[in-house]
Amino acid sequence: MGRMLEGITIGELAQACEVSRDTLRFYERERLLPAPKRSAAGYRLYRQEDASRVRFVRRAQALGLTLDDIRELLQVRSLKTPEQCRRVAARLETRVAAVDERIGELEAFREELLRSLKRCERAISRQECCPVVVDLGANGVGKE
């Protein structure tokens, strides 16, 4: 007795897209994936094109786009007008600026870590207590 399903199940879609079932349910709740049809037994039945949509969402997330960004991109995905391209470009510019800001913060943090590392290395060579640990104890964590 074969299944008479008109679509693919959540498990099949999850496996094809290498995501969890919970991820697909989350995408559905967040309107990143349209609500699927249901079988007579109430199982979600997805279309083949839903797999390309899930992959699009995953690629967009990997680029650092927010769910709101992705939702908007999905709305304009089928339209290929210059105005839509400008909207996409504006979203990407915003994300690039955020990444640049984060890179600056990480570079400053890296420099701070390197300064602390050098202090520790000097103390080790002199057989002294690590000054970074002493500073943390005397000044409290996070105080300048």
Describe the structure.
This protein has helices at residues 10-17, 21-29, 48-62, 67-76, 82-125, 131-139, and strands at 37-38, 44-45. The protein is mainly alpha-helical. The chain has 2 domains: 1-64, Multidrug-efflux Transporter Regulator, Chain: A, Domain 2 (Orthogonal Bundle), CATH 1.10.1660.10; 79-136. Strands 1-2 form a two-stranded antiparallel sheet. The termini are far apart. The mean pLDDT is 84.
SSE topology sketch:
Layout (H helix, E strand, L loop, with lengths): L9 H8 L3 H9 L7 E2 L5 E2 L2 H15 L4 H10 L5 H44 L5 H9 L5
Antiparallel strand pairs: 1-2
Radius of gyration: 25 Å
Strand order of the largest sheet: 1-2
What is the CA–CA distance across the termini? 72 Å
Number of domains: 2
- How many β-strand runs? 2
The number of helices is 6
Keywords for this entry:
144 residues, mainly alpha, Multidrug-efflux Transporter Regulator, Chain: A, Domain 2, 2 domains, two-stranded antiparallel ribbon, 2 strands, elongated
Provide a concise account of the structure shown.
With 144 residues, the chain is mostly helical. The protein has six helices and two strands.
